[in-house]
């Protein structure tokens, strides 16, 4: 079974601080080409800021992104997953909590961030490899 740690092991941990303003965090997300970012205080999880937060809590509420600290508009009720959990559990958690991102934990410490895209890429690569093995097996028997 695939473990979350195997899926995100190649990723660098990107994050912002609670005191950062929305405009800077949104700029960072655009540069990284990500739809959400962890908000940390040291290695403590404080929340997640997503494109959805930007739209619903900044744009629709007409807040000034240059003056609004991300702490005022981030999601704080965040589902997390242990790095030893399986990929199926991660998918189930995302579905149950209607989210596309999960902070990955080692005990009480954040060690990475898992996205639905990460899960899909990993599973596609695994299925593709499985298919190649099956084709090779079939061709070697003929």
Layout of helices and strands, plus pairs?
Elements: H1 4-8, E1 15-16, H2 22-32, E2 36-41, E3 44-50, H3 51-59, E4 81-82, H4 87-96, E5 101-106, E6 109-115, H5 116-140
Parallel strand pairs: 1-2, 4-5
Antiparallel strand pairs: 2-3, 5-6
Offer a quick outline of the entry.
The chain has 142 residues and is α/β, with parallel strands linked by helices. It has helices at 4-8, 22-32, 51-59, 87-96, 116-140, and strands at 15-16, 36-41, 44-50, 81-82, 101-106, 109-115.
Task: Write structural notes for this entry.
The protein is α/β, with parallel strands linked by helices and about 140 residues long. It has a single domain, classed as CBS-domain (Roll). Helices cover about 40% and strands about 20% of the residues. The strands form 2 sheets. The chain has a 3-stranded mixed β-sheet with strand order 1-2-3. A hairpin with a 2-residue loop joins strand 2 and strand 3. It is elongated and about 65 Å long. The mean pLDDT is about 90.
Kindly state the mean pLDDT as a whole number? 92
* Strand order across the largest sheet: 1-2-3
Using the 3D structure, state the CATH architecture.
Roll
Q: Report the principal-axis shape.
A: elongated
Number of strands: 6
Residues in helix, %? 40-55%
Q: Regarding CATH, which class?
A: Alpha Beta
């Amino acid at each position: 079974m695939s473990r979350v740690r195997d899926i995100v092991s190649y990723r660098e941990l990107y994050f912002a601080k609670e005191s950062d303003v929305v405009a800077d965090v949104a700029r960072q997300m655009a540069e990284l080409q990500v739809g959400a970012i962890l908000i940390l205080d040291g290695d403590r999880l404080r929340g997640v800021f997503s494109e959805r937060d930007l739209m619903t809590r900044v744009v629709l509420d007409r807040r000034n992104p240059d003056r609004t600290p991300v702490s005022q508009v981030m999601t704080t009720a965040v589902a997390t997953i242990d790095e030893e959990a399986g990929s199926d559990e991660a998918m189930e958690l995302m579905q149950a909590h209607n989210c596309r991102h999960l902070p990955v934990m080692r005990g009480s410490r954040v060690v990475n961030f898992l996205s639905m895209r990460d899960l899909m890429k990993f599973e596609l690569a695994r299925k593709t490899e499985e298919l190649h093995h099956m084709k090779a097996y079939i061709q070697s028997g003929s």
